[in-house]
Design brief:
Elements (H helix, E strand, L loop, with lengths): L1 E3 L7 E2 L15 E4 L7 E11 L7 E11 L5 E2 L11 E2 L18 E11 L11 H8 L3 E12 L4
Parallel strand pairs: 2-9
Antiparallel strand pairs: 1-3, 3-6, 4-5, 4-8, 5-7, 8-9
């Protein structure tokens, strides 16, 4: 599978419009090569460089989507409307939906990860990244990754 965005290149700078300094809109995403036999897709966006890439302490979760239909080929800017049947997980702000890059220090890496699963996931009581990853264990058929970079322009 391949995952891309029309607004930033792999390992390129994420435009301000998709961050806390801009409109905080999810970037548009497109994917191809979903394998035959895929029952659902999962998208996780996280930042392993929090709070400071010079001394990372945790991975910050920006967006969790699961049970995307296998015939979906992407998401529009802003992430809405979501494809029918898609479930939203919780980000590390404790809310559903996208939360854009907002690094307190340094240039961070943002990993957009798409997984093709051999099954749909069950409804999760608290759909965090950890819960989604646990539910998808043993069911991943393929995965794709897109990395974007961002450094705050204002303090």
């Amino acid at each position: 599978m391949e995952l891309s965005s029309s607004t930033f290149a792999p390992r390129g700078e994420i435009p301000m419009r998709h961050t806390c300094e801009g409109e905080d809109l999810a970037p548009p995403l497109q994917w191809t090569g979903v394998p035959e036999g895929t029952a659902s897709l999962v998208l996780i966006v996280d930042d392993p460089d929090a709070p400071d890439p010079a001394a990372p302490q945790r991975t910050w979760v920006h967006w969790v989507l699961y049970d995307l239909p296998p015939n979906a080929t992407g998401l529009p800017e802003g992430g809405q409307p979501l494809p029918a049947g898609t479930r939203e997980g919780l980000n590390d702000w404790g809310r559903h939906g996208y939360g854009g890059p907002c690094p307190p220090a340094g240039r961070h890496r943002y990993f957009f990860k798409l997984y093709a699963l051999a099954r749909r996931l069950p409804a999760l009581a608290r759909p965090t990244k950890a819960a989604v990853e646990q539910a998808m264990q043993g069911h991943v058929l393929a995965q794709a990754e897109l990395v974007g970079l961002y450094r705050k322009r204002r303090s």
